[in-house]
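Sanity check. The docking grid for NDP depends on where the pocket ends up, so I'm generating a full predicted complex first rather than guessing from homology. Inputs follow.
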Amino acid sequence: MKSILITGCNRGLGLGMIKVLVGLGNNQPAHIFATCRNKDKAVELLALAQQHSNLHVIELDVTDFSKQQDVLFKDISDVVKDQGLNVLVNNAGIAAKFTRLGLLKPEQMTDHFLVNVTAPLMLTKTMLPLLKKASEANSAAPLGSSRAAIVNVSSIMGSIEDNTQGGFHPYRCSKAALNAATRSLSIDLKGDKIIATAMHPGWVKTDMGGSNAPLEVGAATAGIIQFIQSLGEAHNGGFFEYTGKAIKW
Ligand code: NDP
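Predicted complex below; grid placement will be based on this.
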């Protein structure tokens, strides 16, 4: 892949993915676009950008839809030009704790849907012209990340089949909805040779995953980037763990 955009790169898996990408040496993408909500707080990310001129840091709250179009799209277009954008990783997300039914508040549901479902879908819509350009510019390449791909960072918690514990209503419902959106995108964009896949990144030690998670950020994100590089037609419209193992909906 020549270019990739990842949201939510201030910390956690987003920052981890950026670290893996800039560590790829000669194999790193020509352009890595990393968004964060507040540059003043993104100290580590900005330090990386100072060392790697191909890393572009752009401020974005993913729920700011006019900024997606007016700033992010424009900034990326100016850099990639006719080559377009190969990969969009919708990573930014929120997760409330267990959220028993008795304590559930309506705004928890709407907040999770806004950040975890509406924002990735609208960002996909915004970036579509650039994804199409990349797909056309690389028409000799196989389907996948060297052509054009959307990776929606989902969660096993969005699997209805896997849910034996209950609770987590806002998070589970939002990730299940993101999965549904991913399947629709895979069908909608098939003709453009753009693939869309939902990926569970593993249970990882981040602010969201917590300290009991078995996976370190470095190991998980190395696997996630390998998964993105290995994407092909078989992944279109599917739900996978970062190891490549298929997950039941
Ligand atoms: P963290 O809580 O560590 O980081 C979340 C990131 O999302 C932060 O960079 C945060 O920005 C950003 N973010 C949240 N809301 C917005 C917003 N409105 N606009 C822009 N950015 C926003 O989470 P993880 O890194 O662990 O999670 C990343 C993704 O992986 C999420 O989609 C999550 O659901 C998924 N996931 C994680 C698992 C885990 O075990 N860690 C397991 C399964 C899925 P800021 O720093 O400014 O707050």
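Relevant for the grid: The mean pLDDT is 97.
Also worth noting: Residues 7-8, 10-14, 37-38, 61-63, 91-95, 115, 153, 155, 200-201, 203-204, 206-209, 213 surround NDP (CB under 6 Å).
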